[in-house]
Amino acid sequence: MTQYANKGLTIEEIVEQSKSAVEQLLANVDETVEAGRLELDATLDQTTVQIIGQHLSMLNGSKFQLEAEKTRLANIIAVWNGEEPTAPNTFTPTLPITPAE
Q1: Of the candidates 56, 65, 66, 48, which has an alpha carbon nearest to the alpha carbon of residue 31?
Q2: How far apart are CA 79 and CA 61, in angstroms?
Q3: Which comes out higher in pLDDT, residue 98 or 14?
Q4: Radius of gyration of the chain from Cα atoms?
Q5: Nearest to 32 by CA among 60, 65, 64
Q6: Which of 24, 4, 6 is nearest to 69 (CA)?
Q7: What is the helix (H) or strand (E) element at residue 80, kind and residue range?
Q8: Half-sphere exposure of 15 (CA within 13 A, CB side)
Q9: Interhelix angle for 11-39 vs 46-80, to 10°?
Q10: How far apart are CA 91 and CA 29, in angstroms?
Q11: Quick one: what percent of the chain has pLDDT higher than 70?
């Protein structure tokens, strides 16, 4: 649903709901990455390791985008509250796995 689906919502409500959705997705990404890392502790076929590693890498990219969006929304709220916004793109991704031996 977009802001156009419910014209009764205020911009503040839309931004707050958007920030909440992004935060939930970030938690979901973290959970999935952790599950993937745990799978890599098992003895796996090399192709499987590569595929899981690629998947974790894509999730890391998604997390980077979600963190940037969370910062953007938080900065909108900060300005509304008379606070200083934070610098954008301060999230530093970490590599999801170490190279296979």
Answers
A1: 56
A2: 27
A3: 14
A4: 18
A5: 60
A6: 24
A7: helix 46-80
A8: 13
A9: 160
A10: 15
A11: 85
- pLDDT tens figures, 28-52: 999 999 999 899 888 889 999 999 9
CA distance 82 to 86: 13
- Give the whole-angstrom CA distance, residue 81 versus residue 2: 24
Burial of 96 (0-12, 13-18, 19+ CB in 10 A): buried
6 has pLDDT over 80:
no
- Amino acid of residue 38: L
Q: Is the pTM of this model over 0.90?
A: no
The C-alpha atoms of residue 82 and residue 36 are separated, in whole angstroms, by: 41
> Phi and psi of 12, rounded to 5°?
-60, -45
